[in-house]
Design a protein that fits this description.
Layout lengths: L2 H21 L6 H8 L6 H6 L5 H10 L6 H9 L1 H13 L1 H11 L10
Length: about 120
């Protein structure tokens, strides 16, 4: 396994771990959690990269992805707007911790957000 492949797999496992921690909150039901995991939103880095300015903005970003998502996944996510907003809030709130953990595990040390 190449170093790049190892790095990619490590980052994906890290993403999965963070997403599963967030989805373990009792506010998220199974159908919603499965829809998140079946979409690009399962990767916290992707959610952060969407650069939604507010919780309602995540719904408009999701609407732009409709054609790229399985119709049942899209329908579940768009119909659960409040849960999607809560998921977005929790994911973006954990941004610093997520990137610190990922950078440390990849051997880059502590990551700091420069503003």
């Amino acid at each position: 396994m190449s170093a790049l492949e190892f790095s990619f797999r490590t980052n994906m496992a890290q993403s999965d771990r963070w997403t599963l921690k967030i989805l373990s909150f009792p506010v998220f039901h199974d159908a919603f959690a499965k829809a998140i995991l079946a979409s690009p939103l399962a990767d916290p880095a992707f959610v952060i990269a969407l650069d939604a300015g507010s919780a309602p903005d995540i719904l408009s970003k999701l609407a732009l992805m409709e054609e790229a998502l399985d119709p049942s996944v899209f329908q579940t996510l768009i119909s659960e707007g409040m849960l999607l907003e809560q998921f977005w809030c929790l994911t973006t709130s954990s941004q610093q911790a997520f990137f610190n953990s990922t950078a440390t595990q990849l051997g880059f040390g502590v990551w700091t957000l420069s503003e």
